[in-house]
Amino acid sequence: MTAVRLVILGRQGSGKGTQASRLVVAYDTVHISTGDMLRAAVGAETELGLQARAVMDAGELVGDDLINGIVAERLAQDDVAEHGFLLDGYPRTPDQASALEGFLAEAGTPMDAAVNLDVPVDEVTARMVARGRADDTAEAIRRRLDLYESETAPLLAWFAERGLLEVVDGLGAEDDVFTRLTTAIDRRLSVGDAS
Fold it and tell me: What is the pLDDT of residue 90?
């Protein structure tokens, strides 16, 4: 099987985490979550990890330069070279997407697709309220979703302009959503094989 190089996007409560776990198994690929990656770089005390720790210890957000560097380091590792990746939580902005495009081009491994798991705002809100977490107040959920929309709309446009965006309906049974995702990804992979 060819190594796949995917980005998965979706609002909080869209089922993205569940589907990402299934896709990693189905495509024998490496799940790379930004949070996990940052923690790993900090834990391994890489040069970038130490810089990130200093920023986080100061209570600040890790900037694009550091995040891009940590992602580039991670994507250069052997498991990713062999099995590809499913990026989750990165890129978050068109600038980060451009950086990703750049280091994939250097490696000679273009991205296959960015898959957006599309679930309407009212549905993800209901799902988050139903899970009953203390920080899932209606106001907090609305703020997080508004932030996601404002950050992600330009990113979706960036992927769409490059012909990489697949929007997949995230409503319905978990198995049905998974089938829609794999159908969209498989279609992308067969187009890539034909070119």
Answer: 92
pTM: 0.88
> What pLDDT sits at residue 1?
63
- The domain covering 4-194 belongs, at the CATH homologous superfamily level, to P-loop containing nucleotide triphosphate hydrolases (3.40.50.300)
What is the side-by-side strand order in the sheet with 4-10?
A: 30-33, 84-88, 4-10, 113-118, 165-169
With beta carbons less than 8 A apart as the criterion, state whether 66 and 51 touch: yes
Q: Are the C-beta atoms of residues 157 and 91 closer than 8 Å to each other?
A: no
Tell me the mean pLDDT per 10 residues along the chain, length 195.
90 93 96 86 88 86 87 91 94 94 92 96 92 85 89 93 97 97 94 61
- For 35, 56, 89, the CA distances from 61, given in Å and listed in that order, are 12, 6, 14
- Rounded Cα gap, residues 172 and 154, in angstroms: 27
Name beta bridge partners: 133.
Answer: none
Residues marked active site are found at 16, 92, 127, 133, 144
